[in-house]
Amino acid sequence: MKSDIRVCANWETAHDRPVYTLGDSCPDCDGPTANSAPAPFSPEDPYGEYRRRARRRRDSE
User: What are the sequence ranges of the domains in the chain?
Assistant: First the structure.
């Protein structure tokens, strides 16, 4: 399911805070927007263990 709420893709460099909109372009800077919904989570994710292991390895270095 796709979220209708979108966030300015350039908000970290162009704005002090995230700018949310329903359109395809930012109302403040006229830049592109991206889907603001997080990725879906599945407890049966077959690659989750490998991602967590890689993240732990990366964080310990």
Answer: 1-38
- Residue 9 near residue 34, CB atoms below 8 Å: yes
Is-above-0.70 flag for pTM?
no
Report the alpha-carbon distance of residue 58 to residue 42 in Å, rounded. 23
For residues 16-49, one letter each, b for 16 or more C-beta atoms within 10 angstroms of the residue's C-beta and e for the rest, the string is: eeebebeeeebeeeeeebeeeeeeeeeeeeeeee
Per-residue pLDDT of the chain (61 residues; tens, 9 = 90+): 466 899 999 988 889 999 999 999 999 999 999 988 877 888 888 888 898 899 999 888 7
